From TrEMBL:
PANTHER family: F-BOX ONLY PROTEIN 3, POLYMERASE DELTA-INTERACTING PROTEIN 2
The protein, known as: Protein ApaG
Superkingdom in the source lineage: Bacteria
Pfam family, one: DUF525
Record-linked InterPro entries: ApaG_domain (IPR007474), ApaG_sf (IPR036767), Uncharacterised_ApaG (IPR023065)
Gene source species: Methylophaga lonarensis MPL
Residues in ApaG domain copies: 2-126
GO biological process: error-free translesion synthesis
Length: 126
């Protein structure tokens, strides 16, 4: 008998927003685009998010909130949801990691880990 569980996979892409950053004031803005994929055989809804954002100086900030970008995506089998958000750092390099709280159709809540990913200003060659 096979288990009926959502299998949620997370893909992350990041970019540095040069035009909205101000290194002279230690303001480095990064966009991150996340794709949440349900590769299981049952559905789930995203309820909330938790982030730990760590700057290059070791300073940590935690962010918790309802849904993502104002939404609570419902993912059936083989469905995905992509969104873009942003994070401000006071160093040119940092990282983010966290988790989503989700609920399946039976009302069972479960966490989906978001593995650590790096936010870094691209190096320029002169």
């Amino acid at each position: 008998m096979s288990e009926k569980n959502p299998v949620i996979m997370i893909d992350v892409e990041t970019s540095y927003l040069d035009h909205e950053s101000d290194p002279a004031k230690s303001r480095y803005l990064f966009a991150y685009t996340i794709t949440i994929r349900n590769q299981g055989n049952s559905s789930a809804r995203l309820l909330s998010r938790y982030w730990k954002i760590t700057g290059g100086d070791g300073h940590e900030q935690e962010v918790e909130g309802d849904g993502v970008v104002g939404q609570h995506p419902y993912l059936g089998p083989a469905q995905s949801f992509t969104y873009t958000s942003a994070a401000m750092l006071d160093t040119p390099v940092g990282m983010m990691q966290g988790h989503y709280m989700m609920v399946d159709d039976d009302g069972k809540r479960f966490e989906v880990d978001i593995p650590a990913f790096t936010l870094a200003v691209p190096r320029t060659l002169h």
